[in-house]
Design a protein that fits this description.
The longest helix has 19 residues. This protein has 230 residues and is of the alpha/beta class. It is 30% helix and 32% strand. It folds into two domains: 120 residues, 3-Layer(aba) Sandwich (Rossmann fold); 100 residues, Beta Barrel (OB fold (Dihydrolipoamide Acetyltransferase, E2P)). β8 and β9 form a beta hairpin. A five-stranded parallel sheet has the order 2-1-3-4-5.
């Protein structure tokens, strides 16, 4: 059961969210708040997994409130303005609902939040070392040594922490993904597979491993968001 609260200064929106929450079996409504200060008080007293958070509220906006939380629950932003979606992405929100939203769109956001929470609770899978063919030799790859993998048509480059030159081998991205699966590794781009533990920073269109910058494609931004939330 996902314990959630609603934070919105509009009564009609609060009532709509409350009604929608009651129709979803895996959600439990803990409290409804008119502003950020009420929500802060609830978070001090209750265990909360998910916040439905309005952005534009008096005194303290939803985004300002979110920045004050050291270890916030998962958040679904509720906003009338699409321009806030990118800023919400930077703050690791699970999703955003653009007012007015349908029940189908609301359910989709809740399903996504449920999956993120499930992944967060799941124990990480054990990575196994493996061999790849390099010219006429079978070379052992230590899975924990891999920083990222770069796809080059029929070949891949395996970039390792222990050596400056990558290992070049004939293999598809799909095949290497089977050896380096999530959640330890994520696809950030059609040509890049990255070790989550090696990521040192995340920018809007990039993830960084030290001073190495790896692109994040539009189709893979959700993978990065899921990684940030887990």
């Amino acid at each position: 059961m996902i314990r959630c609260i609603v934070v919105d200064d509009e009564q009609l929106v609060r009532e709509l969210l409350e009604d929608n929450i009651r129709q979803i079996p895996f959600l439990q409504l803990v409290s409804t708040c008119k502003n950020a200060m009420e929500a802060a008080a609830v978070l001090q007293e209750e265990e909360v997994d998910l916040i439905f958070l309005d952005i534009q509220m008096p005194r303290l906006s939803g985004l300002e409130f979110l920045r004050t939380l050291n270890n916030p629950p998962l958040v679904i932003l509720v906003t009338a303005y699409e321009k806030y979606a990118l800023e919400g992405y930077d703050l690791r929100v699970a999703d955003y609902l653009l007012k007015p939203f349908s029940f189908e769109r609301f359910l989709r956001a809740c399903n996504r939040a449920q999956e993120l929470l499930r992944l967060k609770a799941a124990p990480p899978g054990e990575l196994k070392d493996f061999f790849v063919h390099v010219e006429y030799t079978q070379v052992k790859i230590v899975a924990d040594d891999v920083e990222y993998v770069e796809g080059l048509k029929d070949y891949i480059k395996i970039h390792l922490n222990s050596q400056p030159r990558p290992v070049l081998t004939r293999m598809t991205m799909k095949a290497i993904e089977e050896k380096l699966p999530p959640p330890a590794f994520i696809r950030t781009h059609k040509s890049f597979l990255v070790a989550v533990a090696k990521i040192t920073a995340v920018k809007r269109e990039l993830v960084c491993i030290g001073n190495k910058e790896i692109p994040v494609g539009d189709a893979y931004k959700e993978n990065v968001t899921r990684m940030l939330n887990t």
